[in-house]
Design brief:
heterodimer; A: alpha/beta; 30% helix; B: alpha+beta; rod-shaped
Chain lengths: 212, 486
């Protein structure tokens, strides 16, 4: 083989290796879950979120500006369409302290409002998110009619990636009164709270959303 | 002013150019095939270069529209996707685009482009959140890669797709297959769908390559035939020139003794007349008549041979047309009247002068008028001369000579071969009217030499009409081959 051919092959391999490494890092970023909080095992009495007697309640905590959560809202729509028993669904949009009025009414808010049988609520200062231990946008919690926690986790398989996921499959099983494959899944999305936010719930792990 | 313009140097030896060696069709076909392939490779490379850059920009636009910023509470910063689209997209797109521009047609270029295209698919799919619609970029890209008509380029592209799914399936099965644990062979299913498309693309590539090979073989065969024809044509032209030269030489050698025969028979005739030997006078007259006929024939052959051998010269001068025609009439009048014909001449007022070969112009008219007289009995031979504007083949103003007779006329078939040497309108004509069949052939060649034209018509009232147009100024002599062809 000629020297020039070897040089080209080496250059090509270097280029391919570099790009492949970049794509690999991007994939690992997309599959790195966000911080998981500790959700209360029973419905907290202090919560102002309305429940419906005799029906399970599904909560989805969303950061209104998080582009990754678009997939979570889409997955929720898919879940509600396919669920055997439709739960009382509440989508809570974070409104941090000190932001302008209407800050939370993003495109994602409009998408959530179009969901069937789902209430869209504003979570001022993230009080409810803190109460339910939600740290990452896309956090879903399913409480049974008796107020016990049945599921905690995300609805997507990776960051901003719609499609079949273990979280969705587990929730569908629970709503069909079947045994779910899992009762907790990772959550992929933006952080609901900044580093300096007061009353930020404790996390089991570091936040997923830091762009390293 | 008289100028002599040689058409070719008479002393120049006849050069017989050796025909170029025929190109072997098989090797020529290989050359052509390589050339076609290179053309397609280069064209496709040039298509991919802008596509790469467009995809890069598209990726950046996607990331800015879909995920511009990442949030933590009320704080935000630029999303990783934006940086990835800009930096990683550039790393994927720019090197192959540069290769396409700097090294088009190279094997490494198209393989690099194929790999880059698949890597770009992976990036775009990621940036759009793994949307199923974006996966069509993979299939569209494979079809585009098949533009190369080189099935080998599909291999690295397919390997990249398969490898991507294999590695993602190992490390992040849920993001690809939606489950925590997937079969280690699940990637094969995805790769199989890509291979499914590959099958058809490979068939298309092979068909395209076969068509190119057939086209190359056909073109090479055609080129070979053209080469052979060209060689044969050169051989024929060389042989024609050699023959014409030979004929010219022989005619010249014949004319010298014939002139001597005519001269001495004239001297003998004068002596016989002075001595009153009537019988000898009659015999010597027959010798002179036969010799002059033979001399005319040889002169005609010599003229034609000179033209065809490229040795005919033009003696260009400016002369008065009316004066030339008047002199011609005094010479030809007796010939025309011999068959009981009448010569009618019409000359326009503004004939003026032309710059051409006086002798050849005179011979053209002599040949046409004597030809008309020969085939007309107790009829009329008309000569009309007028200026013509832009009607000659040169497009220059000139003079038109029209010779009309009331003779036997011509059929279309006869007209088609009238100006060929040694050919008369009909074989029986030679027996009945005599002649050599050279007169009109010489007329046609002289006209062509002087950038003029001659044509024949059949007037409705019968007979024949010959029209000669000569330019007012003959500038350059026509090449011998053109003159002969006309």
């Amino acid at each position: 083989m000629k020297k020039s051919a070897l040089a080209w092959a080496a250059l090509g391999a270097l280029w391919f290796g570099g790009v492949a490494a970049g794509l690999g890092w991007l994939a690992s970023y997309a599959n790195r879950p966000g911080a998981a909080g500790r959700a209360p095992a029973t419905w907290p009495e202090a919560s102002a979120i309305p429940r419906e007697p005799g029906r399970p309640t599904l909560l989805l905590f969303v950061h209104p500006r998080c582009s990754c959560s678009r997939a979570s809202v889409a997955e929720l729509a898919e879940l509600l369409a396919r669920a055997a028993e439709r739960p009382a669904t509440r989508v809570l949009f974070l409104r941090p302290d000190g932001v302008a009025p209407g800050w939370e009414q993003s495109e994602l808010w409009s998408d959530a409002q179009r969901l069937p049988a789902a209430s869209v609520l504003r979570d001022d200062g993230g009080a409810e998110a803190k109460r339910f231990g939600a740290l990452t946008s896309g956090q879903a919690l399913l409480y049974g009619a008796d107020g016990r926690l049945l599921f905690a986790g995300g609805l997507t398989a990776s960051r901003g990636h719609p499609g079949e996921s273990v979280g969705r499959v587990s929730l569908l099983a629970l709503l069909d009164h079947a045994a779910p494959p899992v009762t907790a899944t990772p959550v992929f999305g933006c952080e609901l709270f900044g580093r300096g936010d007061e009353g930020r719930p404790d996390a089991d792990r570091d936040s997923c959303c830091d762009a390293k | 002013m008289q100028t002599a313009t040689p058409v070719a140097t008479p002393s120049e030896p006849v050069a017989v150019t050796a025909p170029p060696p025929a190109r072997p069709a098989a090797s020529r076909a290989e050359q052509l095939l390589h050339s076609y392939e290179q053309q397609i490779y280069r064209q496709t490379d040039r298509l991919f270069a802008p596509l790469m850059l467009v995809q890069w920009v598209t990726g950046i636009v996607f990331s800015l529209c879909i995920s511009p910023r990442v949030w933590a509470g009320s704080e935000s910063r630029t999303h990783v996707h934006v940086w990835a689209a800009f930096l990683l997209g550039g790393a994927i797109s720019v090197p192959p685009a540069v290769l396409a521009l700097l090294r088009p047609g190279k094997t490494s270029t198209r393989h690099g482009i194929a790999v880059a295209q698949m890597l770009m698919s992976a990036l775009l799919i990621h940036l759009t959140g793994g949307r199923i619609e974006t996966h069509f970029h993979v299939f569209g890209s494979l079809a585009f890669i098949a533009f190369y008509r080189d099935w080998r380029v599909l291999i690295p592209a397919t390997v990249v797709v398969a490898l991507d799914h294999l590695l993602r399936g190992i490390w992040w099965p849920e993001s690809v297959y939606g489950v925590f644990v997937a079969s280690e062979w699940r990637w094969v299913e995805h790769a199989a769908w890509v291979a499914f498309e590959d099958v058809f693309l490979v068939i298309a590539c092979l068909r395209g390559a076969r068509e190119m090979r057939e086209r190359a073989a056909a073109t090479a065969g055609l080129d070979e035939s053209v080469d052979r024809l060209r060689a044969s044509q050169q051989e024929v032209e060389a042989a024609n020139r050699a023959r014409s030269e030979f004929v010219a030489n022989v005619s010249h050698e014949l004319r010298t003794p014939l002139n001597a025969i005519i001269l001495y028979s004239e001297l003998l005739q004068e002596g016989a007349v002075e001595d009153g030997r009537e019988a000898d006078v009659a015999d010597l007259t027959k010798i002179q008549t036969a010799s002059r006929h033979l001399l005319g024939l040889i002169n005609g052959i010599l003229d034609l041979s000179k033209i065809e051998a490229g040795h005919m010269e033009l003696d260009l001068q400016t002369f008065d047309v009316r004066k030339m025609v008047d002199e011609m009439i005094s010479t030809i009048d007796a010939v025309v009247r011999k068959n009981g014909n009448t010569l009618a001449v019409t000359l326009a007022e503004d004939l003026g002068s032309i710059h051409g070969d006086l002798t050849k112009t005179r011979q053209i008219l002599f040949n046409l008028l004597s030809n008309a007289a020969k085939f007309t009995h107790d009829g009329t031979v008309r000569l009309s001369v007028a200026r013509c504007g832009g009607a000659s083949v040169t497009g220059i103003d000139g003079v038109e000579f029209v010779v009309t007779d009331t003779g036997i006329g011509l059929t279309e078939e006869q007209k088609s071969k009238l100006f060929r040497p040694f050919v008369q309108a009909d074989a029986s004509i030679a027996r009945k009217y005599g002649g050599t069949g050279l007169g009109l052939a010489i007329v046609a060649r002289f006209c062509a030499l002087m950038n003029g034209e001659v044509k024949v018509e059949s007037p409705p009232e019968g007979g024949a009409r010959f029209i000669v147009r000569l330019p007012a100024e003959t500038r350059t002599p026509v090449e011998p081959a053109d003159a002969a062809a006309s």
